[in-house]
Amino acid sequence: MKPHVAVIKGGWSAEREVSLVSGGAAARALAARGYKVTEIDAGHDLAHKLAEVRPDVAFNALHGRWGEDGCVQGILEVMEIPYTHSGVMASAVAMNKPMAKRVCAAAGVPVAEDKVVASWELFEADPLPRPFVVKPLDEGSSVGVVIMKPGDNTFTPDMDGPWRQNAQVMVERYIAGRELTCSVIGDRATRGVTELRPKRGFYDYEAKYSDGVTEHLIPAPVPPAVYEQVRELALAAHQALGCRGVSRADFRYDDTEGGTGELILLEVNTQPGMTPLSLVPEMAAYEGISFEDLVVWMVEDASCRR
In the listed set 143, 158, 173, which residue is the last one of a domain according to the structure? Predict the structure, then answer.
């Protein structure tokens, strides 16, 4: 018999709406393949709901804080319910941007220079030469990211940005050039590497989840050596962080005129989106893996860890 799958979605992070779409798509795919599926909109009573449902395995479709940072994974561990994606430690480390960068750098994966500063410090002086990027320490999907360029206004407390909700932020050297991404499924990087070309601004939350805002080029039109390096570094980062199941690594490649030519890891997503616009299903499809096949593999991979 096929296992009973609880699809955990929603939650209360800034990425709730995306999680609802991801979870709904995964649930439909599993139901189409004959699995018994129970969808759970995660709240503070998640453990109680799981005890009532008594699933054989959980598909964790949560994104952002609480669902992607090791907290829900800890609940599932205590309840002895196998679950998709990475475990407690890998999830917690990958979600903490400065810590994840230290781990990846130690494994030889290139990362950009950064500083962790108190939010109020931004209002006194620039922590790094411009251009630089300001990010929350532990959010995904580019939530709260701000790019400060030469000539932009100085920071003020009333400006919208991560400093309004966080006591500390990460300030990172801005990397010019192309946005590249590659997924890892199991123990191998996907053959497809994607270049992302937002039609305006940068690849922020809106560009990720609004149809027609970003062009996806797969395979990415970059030199073969760079293409293969992206795949190698995506797998190296996945392994360094101790990820399992599916992950996705995002990079910047500076091929601008007079640029550095460097390939820099931005972050590793341990629970990438599974929406119609998401990148992991697109990369899987590039090598002949359907959305349903991908979701089923993720569930069966988790079930093997019972």
Answer: 173
Domain that holds residue 59: 4-85+295-303
Q: Which of 179, 195, 267, 301 is catalytic?
A: 267
Q: What does the pLDDT read at residue 214? A: 84
121 as an active site residue: the answer is no
To the query of whether residue 301 is one of the catalytic residues in this protein, the response is: no
The residue annotated as part of the active site, out of 250, 253, 278, 282, is: 250
Q: Does residue 164 have an active-site annotation?
A: no
Query: One of 35, 83, 209, 227 is an active-site residue; which one?
Result: 209
Question: How confident is residue 205, by pLDDT bands cut at 50, 70 and 90?
Answer: very low
**Residue 255: active-site member:** no
Both 188 and 99 in a single domain? yes
Q: Which two tokens stand for residue 47?
A: 């453990």
Query: For this structure, is 258 an active site residue?
Result: no
DSSP strands (E only) in 153-275: 168-173, 178-185, 188-198, 214-217, 246-253, 263-269
pLDDT per position as a tens digit, 74-107:
999 999 999 999 999 999 999 999 999 999 999 9
Residues 22, 60, 119, 141: which is the catalytic one? Answer: 141
- The pLDDT of residue 109 is 98
Residue 127 has pLDDT above 50, yes or no: yes
pLDDT above 60: residue 210: no
Known catalytic membership, residue 113: no
* Token pair for 105: 């750098």
Sign of torsion over alpha carbons 202, 206, 209, 215: negative
Residue 145 sits in the same domain as residue 158: yes
Active site residue 269: yes
- The CATH number of the domain where 203 resides is what? 3.30.470.20
Q: Which of 10, 11, 15, 39 is catalytic?
A: 15
Give residue 126's pLDDT: 92
Q: For this structure, is 209 an active site residue?
A: yes
* CA dist., res. 304 & res. 300, Å (int): 6
Instruction: Determine the straight-line distance between the first and last CA of the chain, rounded to whole angstroms.
Output: 15
Contact indicator for 163, 143 with CB cutoff of 8 Å: no
